[in-house]
Sequence to fold (180 residues):
Amino acid sequence: MDLDHNRKTNGDGMVGVIASCGLLLHSLLARLGRAAAGFAGNMGEIAREDPRRVAHSLKVGLALALVSVVYFVTALFNGLGVSPCGPCSPSSSWSTLSGEPISLTVFVFLVASAATFLRFIPEIKAKYDYGVTIFILTFSLVAVSSYRVEELIQLAHDRFYTIVVGVVICLLTTVFVFPV
Fold:
């Protein structure tokens, strides 16, 4: 008994499969486009509802980006504790900011700002607020710390100073940039 009696041998069956896969892909992309448009509309509504949320998100991104820059500027970072004017001196430390550090800083700013703004979506705030906060901090720490690591003890000191400088920058940014 031949079980494949409905199978066509001239290749038309393969064309039908490809056409149905194309239709399936088209409908999935259309559904994805509608979902993205709805999501963007929801984000716009949240931003119009309270513009301070946008300012807060940008402040968080700015603060974490500034901490990244402080971490990347090697001479500035090594100058902490050496002399009071060491970090302020004009040197070639700013010339070390090229390529990867700049792209990492921009990426930290964008991801931190976007993730902070996502926390204002009611569904995310209700279920994942703490998780998003941990994601922002962990992402920033891993993205920045992957750039340069010399020794474990030195890394611990660097992390401590980064946290101290980060707290100061966050507090100053919160107080002086669009205070709420």
About this structure: The helical segments are 12-49, 51-72, 74-79, 100-118, 122-145, 152-176.
